[in-house]
Design goal:
alpha+beta, L-amino peptidase D-ALA esterase/amidase, Ubiquitin-like (UB roll), 2 domains, 5-stranded mixed β-sheet, 11 helices, 15 strands, 24% strand
């Protein structure tokens, strides 16, 4: 499936770098650093998986007591399912970077992605830190986006610029994710930064809302990771008075930019779903409430039968119909339900729409981007979820992941 990465703009004052630690991969960088100016406010959201990884636990603890100066990210090893040793290794990695930079251990946030259940090769990570520190610069976003990849096939970057108090501000971000993608918080790693100064509480609200309509509205395979995290740092290097009024036009411009960056990165993750050949937008409308709409959308998005039909370009609309019917919608009136593939109505009045033809359905299913739209005929609530098809390559990639 064709990917469409955005260009990016550096964020003044935010430095990045990479290094090859050899944690799992050979011949590529697998360690990334992001340095934030003193006084940066940081917002973050994390996985809700009960077996959350050691770096998630440590990052939460550090955020509660200090303002981050460094984000330390490795790929190849998740440091999840590693017990007390994993926690000790996560803290030790932060302490090692702090000793080299003069900051406090709590001012470092660790993030990891890769194989679950294996101890972190801490010595390799620590040995690579001096190289990473020597390479710090504002323009290393593409290198960092590549270093944090696991089964991704392309780095994922996005940026937006906008005007605040007559000056051009920027929000830029990078993300990794292709498999084990299921929202709750979000199933990936994502790191965003802006040169604006923003009130801490508003920054957290802004990120939480943006994640809900982006990273929390995607699924590749229905698996929520142990390591998910999304961080937004407000560096304050633009020199503006901190945004502290949620009703101001400046905050609205910032909020829209953050949401746009998150949406672009989330879409890039689905486009790059392991073995994916199609981007599928599922929209459920005329629901009684938002929770009901989301339940129907998720049931369709997670159906292996729907996803394999999408891969085969098979307009097997009965699979979509069956998914809607088993979505636990109380007293659903099937005669009121309508379902479309793109602009083609496939289901109405409880069965196949009279104007539907197999040829028209197959023509739509062959497209690279497909919309499935469901109107429940029960109210005014709506939601949208992005997903992809399920291909032979998904099985191959995940079967061979540790070999």
């Amino acid at each position: 499936m064709t990917n469409h990465p955005s260009s990016y703009r550096p964020v003044p004052g935010v430095l990045l770098s990479t290094a090859a630690a050899g944690i799992r991969y050979r011949g590529r960088d697998d360690l990334a650093l992001m340095a934030l100016p003193a006084g940066t406010h940081c917002a973050a959201v994390f996985t809700r998986n009960a077996f959350c990884a050691a770096p998630v636990l440590v990052a939460k603890r550090h955020l509660a007591v200090a303002s981050p100066r460094y984000l330390l990210i490795n790929s190849g090893n998740a440091n999840a399912g590693t017990g007390e040793q994993g926690l000790a290794d996560a803290v030790a990695s932060c302490a090692a970077l702090a000793a080299l930079t003069g900051c406090h251990t709590e001012e470092v946030l660790p993030f990891s992605t890769g194989v679950i259940g294996e101890n972190m090769p801490l010595a390799k990570l620590e040995a690579a830190l001096p190289t990473a520190l020597d390479r710090m610069c504002e323009t290393a976003w593409p290198d960092a986006a590549q270093a944090i990849m696991t089964t991704d096939t392309v780095p994922k970057l996005a940026t937006r610029h906008f005007t605040v108090a007559g000056r051009t501000a920027v929000v830029s971000g990078m993300a990794k994710g292709a498999g084990m993608i299921r929202p709750d918080m979000a199933t990936m790693l994502a790191f965003l930064a802006t040169d604006l100064a923003v009130d801490q509480a508003l920054l957290q609200d802004c990120l939480r809302d943006a994640v809900e309509t982006s990273f929390n509205a995607i699924t590749v395979d229905g698996d929520t990771s142990t390591n998910d995290a999304c961080v937004l740092g407000a560096a304050g290097t633009l020199g503006n008075e901190p945004l502290d009024d949620p009703g101001s036009p400046d905050f609205a411009a910032f909020r829209d930019a953050v949401e746009a960056v998150c949406r672009e990165l989330a879409t890039a993750i689905v486009r790059d779903g392991e073995g994916a050949t199609k981007l599928v937008r599922i929209r459920v409308e005329a629901a009684r409430n938002a929770a009901e709409a989301r339940r129907v959308a998720d049931t369709i998005a997670h159906s292996p039968l729907v996803k394999t039909a999408l891969f085969a370009a098979d307009p097997n609309w009965g699979r979509i119909l069956a998914a809607v019917g088993r979505a636990d919608v109380d007293r659903l009136d099937i005669a009121a339900v309508r379902i479309w593939l793109g602009d083609l109505c496939i289901v109405s009045r409880g069965g196949r729409d009279p104007d539907y033809t197999e040829a028209a359905g197959q023509a739509i299913m062959k497209e690279e981007e497909i919309e499935i739209r469901v109107a429940l005929g029960r109210g005014e609530a709506a939601t949208e979820v992005l997903t992809c098809d399920l291909s032979y390559d998904y099985v191959r990639i995940n079967a061979e992941y540790r070999t």
